């Protein structure tokens, strides 16, 4: 059981930031992102403790849970969309609010708003490929599609995002 | 074409700005602690102590039971034939007790000393820690006296006592964190004593035990961090907390714990 504990701890340290960010970009609320990310890791932990049920690909498993948890969240609240446009971006630990930093924050806000307007699978592809820097095969494993499909999807998602920004 | 590629590159650069979105470090620690605390509770419940049968029996009987048990043997003193035997037993027992108190692991009378300790000291977390301290002292005597014959037994006894103390401490962390913080100094002393002996010997006394001790300290630190995040800290305490978090991140859990003590001492 101690090994399970250590394995969980290792996975937690490795993925908490990415999962939190993934969830946060979907729900655009720090509090909700914290709650849902906790739920993701709690489900991971319960699964790890189930005897004889190994997780072959922890990364894919975590992102799948995260997607389910976010979907459950919206279903539970009977909310179909939450507009990130109306929320104020919360940026932490980025340093002093200098002029340069303020410009970066505005740019971040703009990208985030544009991202939020994309369909869900495009949002996922952008996050995984360009923010979490996953490889195409890794993304293919998460959503169970061919690598060719992923490449086409990423390209379309990027194009869609560009249209939203301009 | 080149223009499109340039645009795509710029867009990707802008997207990567979102990498700056990060969770609060305190929250990250807190959640991990909360999830693991559930496991630790079960772990502590399942961790049956290693106390002797004598110790278990006496503990179950309570004080009244123990007295009644002894009085029941006095009926044999009504018969003179038993008096001499009883006296001999008591005298030899007393001498044996005295000698056994100076015995070391590997000595003939050590098992008697160990049994007496366990029966008289009980098996609660504090007692387990005290026993581990004693085993550490034994080990020091063995190493300092170069008693090679006792070394293996002393190491084994010490490791067993550390394992029991660590389990007890984890239970304390879960159930009585304030008390755990108080006794954590003893745990850190234990770790330091162990390290000193390992340096003298030039060998590790047990990787598993090292890991358990580290784990216990880490969990306590996480519990304390979770508690501190709910409190209002003075500027000085905030600074100490930052240093504690920094030490924690570098896996210097003992150091982190020392900062936590300082924060506690700085409380008004």
Automatic annotation (TrEMBL), chain A:
Signal peptide: none
UniProt keyword Secreted present: no
BP terms from Gene Ontology: DNA-templated transcription initiation
RNA polymerase sigma factor 70 region 4 type domain boundaries: 109-161
SUPFAM superfamilies reported in the protein's UniProt record: Sigma2 domain of RNA polymerase sigma factors, Sigma3 and sigma4 domains of RNA polymerase sigma factors
Pfam assignment, any one: Sigma70_r4_2
Alphabetized UniProt keyword annotations: Sigma factor, Transcription, Transcription regulation
Ranges for domain RNA polymerase sigma-70 region: 11-78
Coiled-coil zones: none
Family assignment from sequence similarity: Belongs to the sigma-70 factor family. ECF subfamily.
Protein name, entry field: RNA polymerase subunit sigma-24
From TrEMBL, chain B:
Protein name in the entry: DUF5667 domain-containing protein
Organism: Candidatus Wildermuthbacteria bacterium RIFCSPHIGHO2_01_FULL_49_22b
Highest classification ranks of the organism: Bacteria, Candidatus Wildermuthiibacteriota
């Amino acid at each position: 059981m101690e090994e399970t504990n250590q394995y969980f701890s290792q996975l937690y340290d490795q993925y908490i930031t990415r999962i939190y960010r993934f969830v946060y970009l979907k729900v655009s609320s720090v509090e909700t992102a914290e709650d849902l990310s906790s739920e993701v890791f709690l489900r991971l932990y319960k699964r790890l403790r189930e005897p004889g049920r190994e997780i072959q690909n922890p990364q894919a498993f975590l992102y799948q849970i995260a997607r389910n948890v976010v979907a459950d969240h919206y279903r539970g609240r009977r909310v179909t969309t939450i507009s990130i446009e109306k929320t104020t971006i919360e940026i932490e630990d980025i340093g002093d609010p200098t002029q340069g930093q303020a410009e970066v924050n505005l740019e971040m806000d703009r990208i985030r708003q544009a991202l939020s307007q994309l369909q869900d699978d495009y949002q996922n592809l952008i996050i995984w490929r360009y923010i979490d820097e996953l490889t195409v095969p890794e993304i293919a494993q998460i959503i169970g599609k061919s690598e060719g499909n992923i490449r086409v999807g990423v390209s379309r998602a990027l194009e869609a995002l560009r249209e939203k920004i301009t | 074409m080149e223009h499109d590629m340039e645009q795509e590159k710029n867009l990707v650069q802008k997207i990567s700005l979102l990498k700056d979105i990060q969770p609060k470090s305190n929250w990250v620690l807190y959640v991990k602690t909360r999830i693991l605390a559930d496991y630790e509770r079960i772990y502590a419940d399942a961790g049956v102590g290693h106390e002797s049968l004598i110790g278990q029996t006496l503990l179950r009987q309570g004080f009244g039971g123990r007295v009644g048990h002894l009085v029941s043997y006095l009926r044999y003193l009504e018969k003179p034939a038993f008096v001499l035997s009883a006296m001999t037993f008591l005298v030899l027992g007393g001498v044996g007790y005295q000698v056994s108190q100076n015995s070391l692991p590997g000595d003939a009378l050590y098992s008697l000393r160990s049994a007496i300790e366990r029966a008289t000291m009980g098996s609660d977390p504090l007692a387990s820690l005290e026993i581990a301290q004693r085993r550490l002292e034994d080990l020091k005597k063995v190493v300092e006296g170069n008693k090679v014959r006792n070394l293996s037994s002393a190491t084994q006894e010490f490791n067993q006592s550390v394992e029991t103390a660590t389990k007890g401490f984890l239970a304390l962390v879960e159930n009585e964190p304030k008390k755990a913080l108080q006794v954590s100094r003893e745990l850190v002393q234990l770790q330091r004593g162990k390290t000193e002996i390992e340096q003298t010997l030039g060998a590790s006394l047990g990787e598993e035990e090292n890991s358990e001790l580290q784990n216990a300290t880490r969990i306590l630190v996480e519990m304390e961090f979770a508690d501190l995040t709910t409190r209002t800290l003075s500027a000085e305490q905030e600074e100490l907390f930052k240093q504690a978090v920094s030490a924690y991140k570098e896996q210097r859990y003992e150091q982190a714990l020392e900062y936590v003590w300082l924060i506690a001492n700085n409380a008004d």
